[in-house]
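> run fold PepSY-associated TM helix domain protein
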Amino acid sequence: MNTLYRFFFRISKPIHKYLGLVLCLYFLAMGASGLLLNNPGWIRSMSVSWNLTPVNYEYQNWNRMLVRQGFIDSDDTWFVAGKAGVLRGDDGVFTALEQGFPRALYERDTSALLPLDGGLLAATRGGLYAFDRSQQSWRQLELPGAGRSPHVVDVVRAGQQIVAFTARQVFVAEADELSFRPVELTVADENFRGRVPLFRILHDIHNGTIIGLPGKLLVDVVGLALVFLSISCLVIWYVPRRNRWFARWRRNPGTFFRFNWRYHLKVGVYAVAFLAVLAISGALLRPPLLIAIAPYSMEREHPLLSFSERSHGLGGKIQRALYSTWDNSILLATESGFWRGPADFSAPFRPASVPISIHGMGATVLEEMEPGLFLVGSFSGLFVWEELSQRVWRLPRPGLRGGNPFMSNDLVSGVILQEGYPRFRLDYHDGMLPLSAQRADIPPAMPREIARNTPLSLWHYLFEFHNGRIFEKWLGTSYMLVVPIGGILLLIIGLSGLYDWWYRRRKAKQKKRMESAQTEE
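> ok
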């Protein structure tokens, strides 16, 4: 048996040593980026220069959500919103409405725009802002209990009231006052036995929210552990080789080396199980492994979800909302599906049946064109839904081929409305396009200056790195393998290190027992 253990040790030792050395900088970056992504408040004011960004991330024709929503006014004035903030267009000339608006790129990212008499409302990552056309300036509106700069996902008009939504809260104000107050959104889920997609559960495991705030903090600590292990492995490797390569600088390993050696072992042993969970969950969240788990789901009453928001309430974050005029209701698109309730929130919301397939990334378009006629879009395409008859028809993008929306690139990220109807569609990759092949509308040219002034926020840049898409320029479609392979290799490195530690510990105990036996003799 000792021979077998020694054989495995001779295999695991070089695996842990050399594979860890080759990948330590990658794991250092993954640990640091994961920690920062889990705490966006730390970096929300930072951005990354275009000089450090791959050229395929440069905006073309309003794509990549530079603009994700907008409308054309009665006097043919354009108002569009997205990562560039809010822009006004007159006769094809666009200018940014910046006075009083958030300056940080992360915070100015706007998800919804609502026209008001004499103004606008903008739902941004940095709060809800009101624009006064006469003053040509913005002011932030307070949302009590939501924090200083909450991420507002949508804002709609419901009769004489304005309703603003964050991912988990609802605020209501009179349209002529804009003094918001929180309202309670109750859910009648006693008979709702929904299912939660497995990929959402894995995502919650990966960021720790599967058990709420304690889980998030635990994942932060594990991220710090991965950063420390990556740095300490370099120290442990470099110091002995420095003495070997540079004789004149030879010195005995000092306190710093001993600290890294000792705690690399301790931290590694205690963190290996958590790192394994993060490695496996991260690998499964990217193609091609994501495709394998996509069909699977879990009942929301499952014990694993006992402390998760998936098991109660809306079952996830609010993504989009609309006000239905024909029945005075609010329709919500959430991570768990659609929910509907009265516009005054006087009764619980209930699951709503919407006969449209929504992409896993969530709904990107939810608009009422006329009473009972809705426009619904996601990365699975753009659809019109007539509720009374339950008829659905698709508005395919120009040049659409086949029925697979992933292969056909029908990735709808938004629409431009005119008089309540869609005039242009916004594709994530190809930007602003005519609504259909039969329409001859020509979208306005994208100002290069505005695009150059909208580099990636540091959070978005790290997000692209953490999911591997940043490597697409160099690896092509093979970039999808970076994260799954990295996760598998992290698992191998962790398990081999654990085996090395166990083998040395076992050998030391055997030696100690032999010495004790000899002493007794």
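Confidence is low (pLDDT under 50) at residues 404-408.
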